[in-house]
């Protein structure tokens, strides 16, 4: 019985580390557009758009002033 309890505790700890909420505890955020879609790139944003950002302790609403995508590197020819 004790071995099962230890195993269950280890599985619980592993599950917690994989949880998206645990990622938020480490300082990351989830950003959603007005349609609820997850924003993964600055290329998805338009000035004036309203976003909902979720942090570990709550959420807030923001508006895009400008987006600054990284310049894409051209692949080098061999």
Structural notes for this entry:
The chain is of the alpha+beta class and about 80 residues long. It has one domain (about 1-65). The protein is built from 2 helices and 3 strands, in the order H-H-E-E-E. It has helices at about 1-20, 20-25; strands at about 30, 50-55, 60-65. The protein has a 3-stranded antiparallel β-sheet with strand order 1-2-3, with no helix packed on it. The longest helix has 17 residues, at about 1-20. It is elongated, with a radius of gyration of 19 Å. The model has no long low-confidence stretch (mean pLDDT about 90).
Query: Could you say which overall geometry the principal axes of the C-alpha atoms support?
Result: elongated
Order of helices and strands: HHEEE
Could you tell me the strand content as a percent range?
Answer: 15-25%
What Rg do the Cα atoms give? 19 Å
Count of individual domains: 1
The helix count comes to 2
The biggest sheet amounts to:
3 strands, antiparallel
Structural category: alpha+beta
Give the helix level as a range of percent: 25-40%
User: What is the overall pLDDT average?
Assistant: 89
Task: Give, in spatial order, the strands making up the sheet with the most strands.
Answer: 1-2-3
Q: Cα distance, first to last residue?
A: 62 Å
Number of strands: 3
Low-pLDDT runs of 5+ residues are none
């Amino acid at each position: 019985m004790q071995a099962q309890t230890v195993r269950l505790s280890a599985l619980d700890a592993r599950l917690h580390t994989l949880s998206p909420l645990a990622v938020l505890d480490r300082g990351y955020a989830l950003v959603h557009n007005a349609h609820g879609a997850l924003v993964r790139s600055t290329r998805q944003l338009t000035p004036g758009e309203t976003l909902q950002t979720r942090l570990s302790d709550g959420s807030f609403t923001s508006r895009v002033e400008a987006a600054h995508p990284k310049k894409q590197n051209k692949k080098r020819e061999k």
